[in-house]
């Protein structure tokens, strides 16, 4: 059976009057995290002009010659520029994208494109990252509260911005599954729960499988696609365990290693099962 796209409404949660509405916002965020694992936030304080300026800066970076971008190469700390070089854990195939991954702190030493090449990029990128980090911290306070943790439980860890002109694209997306189209609306920031937070919540919050689909339907956009994604990661030595201790305690570094292995194994088994079912149907019709 072919994949189908459905169109449920994604929760749009206002962060306006945050301090006085924190209990209400917490309830809305936790409901969305429990039911879908995706939600959009508005009234977050980052203007459309700031977002567009960062997209303009990122486009300027990717228009540079590859040999120039190669002077800030990607490294094992997951920072720097790469092109068609990363392996997608869920498929063991090259990720069809080019990206420049940024972080706060010393991991970026020597990996910022210099001002002679792209004037103001570092300063403006860091300023934008701090703006997004402030919004992210508000969300994490609410999610910590919802799980019964202290407000500062998800304390500062590793955070960073990934900018890229192309993301993983799939042409055969999950045969037999129902997919939700997440559209773009100015002023909204789409957020999703990751595997780690799902585990940290004892599976109360959902980490929903998501992909960028290759254009193939009427109305699909066929041009270049730029994206910016901000990630919160735990420090490598952070101890991860949910409030009910459903899973054994594990460090951030070990969780990441296991997640990459499990993601690939699960998708491989799922694909083999679906292909076997397809082959059986075809044989029966022959």
TrEMBL record:
Domain Non-haem dioxygenase N-terminal: 14-104
UniProt xrefs under InterPro entries: DIOX_N, IPNS-like_FE2OG_OXY, IPNS-like_sf, Iron_ascorbate_oxido_reductase
Gene3D superfamilies named among the record's database cross-references: B-lactam Antibiotic, Isopenicillin N Synthase, Chain
Pfam families the UniProt entry points to: 2OG-FeII_Oxy (PF03171), DIOX_N (PF14226)
Residue span, Isopenicillin N synthase-like Fe(2+) 2OG dioxygenase domain: 169-234
Protein family membership: Belongs to the iron/ascorbate-dependent oxidoreductase family.
Protein name: Fe2OG dioxygenase domain-containing protein
């Amino acid at each position: 059976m072919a994949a189908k796209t459905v169109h449920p409404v994604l929760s749009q949660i206002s962060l306006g009057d945050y301090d006085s509405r924190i209990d209400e916002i917490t309830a809305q965020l936790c409901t969305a995290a429990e039911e879908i694992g995706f939600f959009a936030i508005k009234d977050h304080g980052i203007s459309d002009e700031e977002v567009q300026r960062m997209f303009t800066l990122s486009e300027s970076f990717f228009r540079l010659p590859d040999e120039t971008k190669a002077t800030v190469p990607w490294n094992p700390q997951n920072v720097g520029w790469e092109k068609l070089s990363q392996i997608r854990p869920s498929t063991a195939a090259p990720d069809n994208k080019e990206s420049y991954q940024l972080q706060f702190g010393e991991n970026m030493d020597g990996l910022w494109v210099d001002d002679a090449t792209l004037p103001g990029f570092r300063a403006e990128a860091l300023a934008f990252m701090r703006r997004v980090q402030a919004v992210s911290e508000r969300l994490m306070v609410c999610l910590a509260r919802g799980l019964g943790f202290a407000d500062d439980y998800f304390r500062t860890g590793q955070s960073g911005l990934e900018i890229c002109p192309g993301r993983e694209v799939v042409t055969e997306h999950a045969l037999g599954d129902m997919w939700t189209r997440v559209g773009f609306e100015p002023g909204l920031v789409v957020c999703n729960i990751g595997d780690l937070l799902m585990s940290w919540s004892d599976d109360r919050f959902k980490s929903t499988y998501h992909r960028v689909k290759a254009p193939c339907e009427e109305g699909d956009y066929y041009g270049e696609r730029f994206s910016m994604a901000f990630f919160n990661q735990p420090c490598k030595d952070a101890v991860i365990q949910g409030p009910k201790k459903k899973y054994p305690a594990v460090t951030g570094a070990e969780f990441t290693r296991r997640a990459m292995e499990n993601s690939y194994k699960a998708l491989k088994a799922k694909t083999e099962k679906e292909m076997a079912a397809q082959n059986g149907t075809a044989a029966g019709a022959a």
